[in-house]
Write a structure and sequence with these properties.
alpha+beta
Amino acid sequence: MFAIRSLPDRNLRWLCTDMSLQSQVPLMMLRSRLALAGIVLLFVVTPAAAQSPGQVRVQSTINFFVAGPSGDSEEGQKLRDRARRTVYEMAARECELLRETLARDCRMESVNTNINRQFGSQQPEGFNVSGSMGFQITLK
């Protein structure tokens, strides 16, 4: 549909030799545009509709460095596991902290971890770790 739209009219007539197809091409393009607009609207409206009054989304991030072997050895794997575990444990404690301070209820929505290997002659070997977490809370 989109390839036909970009062609000049004379090429469109050549491609659409059947008169019924010529009249359907603009209708098909209109339908595809309406469908695309509906999908975009769905993604825009859904997050707003999911949040009711008194609810707030909270995001938290952490960045830290873990020194140690950064290769594919068993020690390197254990270090990466320990780094991810730290982010996950922080996410678990974050809901407790939110309940103690400003939330009546807390629901974890997402947790992301990113581990990047650091090595070289000028810097210590290890991993740069970043984590982010998202929560939806109901205010007290």
